[in-house]
Design goal:
alpha+beta; four-stranded antiparallel beta sheet; globular; binds zinc ion; 17% helix
């Protein structure tokens, strides 16, 4: 994601401001990093340049459904 995306990104839970921590950057693209909401004390990871802004409970639900996706 581009760093200037931070201007429009908000916490999916409280719509609050997110703090960006960059682990890997190329030009102005953040490849790996972390978005942190101080209000929720919740972290949202950035992997392969894509910020994962799913609310934590939805992320848990997705992980659970993936784990139980056998017929
Ligand atoms: Zn929040």
């Amino acid at each position: 994601m581009r760093q200037d995306l931070m201007e429009i990104l908000v916490c999916p839970v409280c719509k609050g401001e997110l703090t960006l921590t960059i682990a890997a950057v190329e030009a102005d693209e953040v490849l790996t990093g972390d978005l942190f909401c101080a209000a929720c004390t919740e972290h949202y990871p950035i992997d392969d340049g894509i910020p994962n802004l799913l609310p934590p409970d939805m992320r848990a639900a997705m992980a659970a459904s993936e784990a139980g996706s056998g017929h």
